[in-house]
Prior knowledge:
The protein is of the alpha/beta class and 315 residues long. It has helices at 24-34, 55-65, 89-96, 110-118, 129-133, 147-164, 169-183, 185-198, 213-217, 225-233, 239-250, 266-277, 296-313; strands at 48-54, 69-75, 100-103, 125-128, 202-205, 220-221, 256-260, 281-285. It folds into two domains: 24-183, Rossmann fold (3-Layer(aba) Sandwich); 188-313, Rossmann fold. The chain is globular, with a radius of gyration of 20 Å. The relative contact order is 0.13.
Amino acid sequence: xxxxxxxxxxxxxxxxxxxxxxxxxxxxxxxxxxxxxxxxxxxxxxxxxxxxxxxxxxxxxxxxxxxxxxxxxxxxxxxxxxxxxxxxxxxxxxxxxxxxxxxxxxxxxxxxxxxxxxxxxxxxxxxxxxxxxxxxxxxxxxxxxxxxxxxxxxxxxxxxxxxxxxxxxxxxxxxxxxxxxxxxxxxxxxxxxxxxxxxxxxxxxxxxxxxxxxxxxxxxxxxxxxxxxxxxxxxxxxxxxxxxxxxxxxxxxxxxxxxxxxxxxxxxxxxxxxxxxxxxxxxxxxxxxxxxxxxxxxxxxxxxxxxxxxxxxxx
Length: 315
């Protein structure tokens, strides 16, 4: 059965984004390049040209599209901090020529909407994941760490592929069902295991990337929300939040510390070092796929297994 396409799942939307991360002169040059390109409804016979701003969404789209689409992910280097990314001319051309663009939204990739707006096309579909999930700019943009949001994206991407290539609608429905039932099985099983064995365990995190996943796993994330948000946004946490984080580590109130190794500062590294010195196990997560060629579910499953190991060894 074909998945229904709804305006809530698939939409071309335009928001005013933060511009502080993008050098305006450089972006202007890219926009000029982009206007010379037209969006393509296909990248060959029976294929849809898809561009994802980040490779976690790109990996999911690739597996849902199978042989009936080409998918390019713009941010794919695990050494890159997506919060500080500046687009290239190649990125502008890719978005200008895409039939379907998947952007994270919620202020995470503000440059993407600028590139989309620079070359409007009535035939281009744009999925803003933040809009889909009701997360506005200023909210927690790390939606790929929410299993609920991930499922909504899977449904929306499938629906849009069916809309763009209706002749292959049944194929996309099969891809969807296979991915959700088989592809995500280990990911789902590991999450269930953590919830069964470690529900209620107090844990800490170095930024907001883990804030969606913790409640899904039944874990009690006790780090100050203000601290998590500040580190995520590249601002300085309040003295009170810093003191609380330090106290939670010093007194060993947390059993495990989840560390975003792709977004660290000297202050964060000092907390990580202190946690290790106190015998608190530290497990790392990243913003984007690491390594870059791994699938979304394998990347997440490896991190979940590392978390299980840390929880099992917590004292």
